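Hello again, I could really use a second opinion on something today. I owe you a coffee for this, so here goes:
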Amino acid sequence: MKKSEVIHAWANILTGSAPSLSIEITKECPLHCPGCYAFDAAHLGGKTQLRELSDFKGDELVKRVLAVIDEHRPLHVSLVGGDPLVRYRELELLLPQIESRGVHTQVVTSAFRVVPATWRKFKKLNVVVSIDGLQPEHDERRKPATYERILHNITGARVTIHSTITSQIADRPGYLDEFLNFWSRRPEIAKIWFSLFTPQIGATDTEILTASQRESIIAELKRLRLKYSVLDMPESVIREIASPPRNPAECIFARTTKIISADLTTQITPCQFGGAPDCHQCGCVASMGLAAVGHYKVFGPLTAGQIFKASDRFGKGWRKLQNALSPKPVLAAAPSPFKIL
């Protein structure tokens, strides 16, 4: 992270704004992947589930997403879902307008639909394609977004590959090496990231890694990052997996990222997993990346993490005071339900 970006993020946090924004722009997804956190019953706090929310499409979606971005003025926005490519027409309108605002954008997709090669023109866009391991496992879990379909749909594009390591993967020697060997040969691949499966507290998912598996994976990733330059995981990030933030209050990602669901109103807390994630077993590459940035010394012994956390406390206090002093709005008649275009 550049020093100028740290200062910019600091300024945002001081005013009570989050420097990072994640928006579930649709509840729709053609896949039904086991272990998907977005459709987990706990994702929205247990009161409702993502598929039960109302969402938008067409010009209404574009207008509302841009309004959210303009309100929060983030440095970075992730467009997730569901699968954002369900709203590919709206993305064609959104991406140039977000870039014109100087905001870095990340689109996270299964690549079940074509990723336009023309998106390479955007300087601040990162398209992340989620892959669940090697072809046999992936095709079984993520059909219709099979390897064959993904390879066709990313032709001519520029994408990042992200894969979540589960206990089943961790049990197979050489699995990550084989995975990296396959994807690193593709001309469309800019970089590759790995996360470790992060469960909810008390969960018993078969995907959960044991302590010994985590230790083995950490050692393997340190070795593979030297073998494959496309593996964009510095050793500082990999080390964080061994000692993740103990709770959301200690997680820079959770404290500096606002997550908004498909109705563009519901906020997801404490992080993108929602519910009660087991932070002791967190392996989210975004969380680990910001944890590593938190140790970056900005001014002498002062770290980025210390700046973020102190600024976050001040900013939230300032926003609370502003809200208390602001005149209360006059209640209007309840609007009629919006129309899905």
About this structure: The first strand starts at residue 20 and ends at 24. The chain has a mean pLDDT of 87. The CA atoms of residues 9 and 71 lie 15 Å apart. Strands lie at 20-24, 76-80, 104-109, 125-130, 159-165, 189-196, 257-260, 267-268, 297-299, 302-303.
